[in-house]
Amino acid sequence: MPFLILVYITAFLDRANVGVAKLGMQGALGFTEEVIGFGAGIFFAGYFLLEIPGSLIVERWSARRWLARIMITWGLMATLTGFAGMLPGGGSPKFQFYGLRFLLGAAEAGFFPGVLVYLTHWFRQADRTRAKAWFMLAQPLAIVIGTPISRWILETVHWYGLPGWRWVFILEGLPPVLMGFITLWFLPDHPADAKWLPPDEREWLETELERERKDREATGSTSILAALREPRTTLLAIAFFLIVTGNQAILFFLPTITNNMKTISVAWRTVVATAPYVFSIFGILLNGYWAHRTGKKRLHTALPMFLTAFSLGMAILAGNNLALVITFFCLLGLTFQAYLPVFWSLPPAFLGKSGAAAAIGIINSVGNLGGFVGPYLFGYLRDTTGSFETGMWCLVGSMILAGTFAASVRVEENVRK
User: Fold this and answer.
1) Residues 34, 35, 36, 42, CA torsion sign
2) In terms of CATH, what superfamily is 2-187+219-407?
3) Angle at Cα 249 formed by Cα 139 and Cα 84, nearest 5°?
4) Who wins on pLDDT, 358 or 138?
């Protein structure tokens, strides 16, 4: 788990660091907010392509080899983004940026659902929500750790005549390449391959996982076709699309929103941009452990989405009251990723191994298209209206709808007595 968390931190950082790098890119390359939003979002168009095959490859072939391939290729694409506008072959900087972001998404596709499937090879159904809560910590940790580092690189690193925003991409793109090679010899595919586990523990865990697999097969919901026909897969895909639309727009434009708080220093603006993700760490853990105790998966999936909409709406209504805006952004941080560990425990609760793997791929690929829609729509509305408010109200509506769809997904609750 610590290794997977570390790898996912680098993955999330490489997709999100454009939110900081753009503070230098816009002046150097003449990019508008709409261009940045489209470039941030087109990542998810590439991401869409290999999600389902990636999760099935992990299930049926080798997580170790497939995840290593993903890390090496996404690291290379992230590094090359630092050379947008300088690459041979011509083309405007804008279209080179679009192409590299698309290839980055295609390279990373399959990592997140692949790890979710991989965790089912190691954790029993009863333990998966907590395990996924720890894994999901990588998302806010990437921002908490990465935003100050990215900002420091942007402001201070100007080696070989290259501006800081280029080094943000280059220096943060190289670590995944190294980690990919480490993965090939470090990450075992199954408990039976883990030499560091005592033999009796390996045998016990394999027996438990095999028993759960047979129980799930008995329900008849094990095939890929079952995942495609299952209405709950569609509902979860819609809910995930809507919440990702809101969350990704916040992720990419929060540094810009806080950068407009000119009454505070650059250092404090960085703190304000990072603070919601500190709260998000606690939100993910608290909701994951609370859901583990109550067994109420729907409640712990939908409620954080509704609370996120409330917090963002109150931040808008707070207007120019900086203290209230920061307070509600922190409350938003507490809830806006808290749904993650419970949400991704839903497909294995009503589908078997291949079915759940396919459902996770379907939900993540369709849902992450919201990562294209959210940043692009938010950037477009910012350019056309001259303010962030209209875009933020659109995000509020998206999060309310996400909670509504998530609340309609019925699964066995397993409430503890």
Assistant:
1) positive
2) MFS general substrate transporter like domains (1.20.1250.20)
3) 85
4) 138
